[in-house]
Amino acid sequence: MTFLGHTARKNFGQHWLKDKTILRKILEVAEISPSDIILEIGPGRGALTKYLLASLALFTYAVELDRDLAFMLRRQLGFSSRLALVEADILNIDFLSQGKCRPNKVVANIPYNITGPLLENLLGTLITPAVRPYERIVLLVQKEVGERICAHPGDSNYGALSVRMQLLARCYNICEVRPSCFQPPPSVKSLVLVLKPLPTQDLIIPNLASQVDKLLNLCFSSRRKMLRSTLPNLIDRDCIENLMIETGVDLHQRPQEVSPAAWVKLAMNLNRLSLNS
Ligand SMILES: C[S@@+](CC[C@H](N)C(=O)[O-])C[C@H]1O[C@@H](n2cnc3c(N)ncnc32)[C@H](O)[C@@H]1O
Asked: Is 157 annotated as a binding-site member?
């Protein structure tokens, strides 16, 4: 697919969003107000950027890796005093540590091949979460990944990613996006995902987070086993009954059935048991 002589680059995940209903939906769920400073990742040919410029947003940073597209966009939209077009790899930029003019929201149709590191860049990790997180992150992601992030205990796709993400942010699956909404169409379905990072006071402390991390790695590596069969790798078999009573978590469950809050309770008690021993 060529745009002003530019052929879409597969390795940069270039799929231009052309469906106006989806573009409007993204803007709607971003809930943009006049004080918002937006970060757009990968403006590409500017489909979403134009909507952001027409919105109430105070200012938009658009970060594009592709030099040719950045050049074309600068010529097309560079007149706007409410837009800074940054030619860079988003993974090398830390907007969160900026001062007063830092973006407070992210709105983007991202290249799917960098979803994992990008989420880490935007939210931090369970052990080292972003200190002053974005208020709201609206992303188009691969449907399968978005569904895993938003999955509930008991869903077939609920896993360690769901728990880690839900302990960092409220996660909402807004709507599915068909491949035909893009040009060229990607080979996978997509969805609009909204993440509302939790305020710092609702995050778990690093010590506890590393225990949760350890628990998730251990238990989800044997996802068919009941917790009471896996946990003796971490604590004395004799403590299992106590752990069940003190946490109220049924250890006959498999990891896929355990809620994020229950993982935290388990980790808290494991921390205590290991301090006592
Ligand atoms: C899926 S396209 C979206 C384009 C446009 N926003 C749209 O909706 O039509 C992803 C865009 O991200 C850019 N991109 C890829 N990797 C990037 C990175 N590491 N940093 C910044 N931009 C990147 C690509 O060049 C491409 O323009």
From this structure: no
* CATH architecture observed for domain 206-276: Orthogonal Bundle (1.10)
pTM of the model: 0.94
Residue positions counted in the chain? 277
Domain spans in the chain, listed from the N-terminal domain onward: 2-202, 206-276
* ipTM of predicted assembly, 2 dp: 0.99
Sign of the alpha-carbon dihedral angle for 21, 26, 27, 31: positive
pLDDT tens sequence across 67-96: 999 999 999 998 899 999 999 999 999 887
Atom from ligand 1 closest to the CA of residue 44: 27
Residues in Cβ contact with 140 at an 8 Å cutoff, skipping those fewer than 6 apart: 17, 22, 26, 108, 109, 110, 177, 190, 191, 192, 193
**Which protein residue's CA is at the shortest distance from atom 18 of ligand 1?**
89
> Topology of 2-202 in CATH?
Rossmann fold (3.40.50)
Q: Whose CA is nearest to atom 15 of ligand 1?
A: 12
Nearest atom of ligand 1 to the alpha carbon of 90: 20
Higher pLDDT, residue 143 or 96: 143
CA of 47 to the centre of ligand 1 (A): 11
Residue 79 CA to residue 99 CA, distance in Å, equals 25
Helix (H) or strand (E) holding 165: helix 160-166
Q: Which of 17, 41, 24 is nearest to 92 (CA)?
A: 41
> Whose alpha carbon is nearest atom 8 of ligand 1?
17
Residue 64 among known ligand-binding residues: yes
Q: Identify whether the C-beta of residue 159 lies closer than 8 Å to the C-beta of residue 148.
A: yes
pLDDT in tens, 198-234: 999 999 999 999 999 999 999 999 999 999 999 988 8
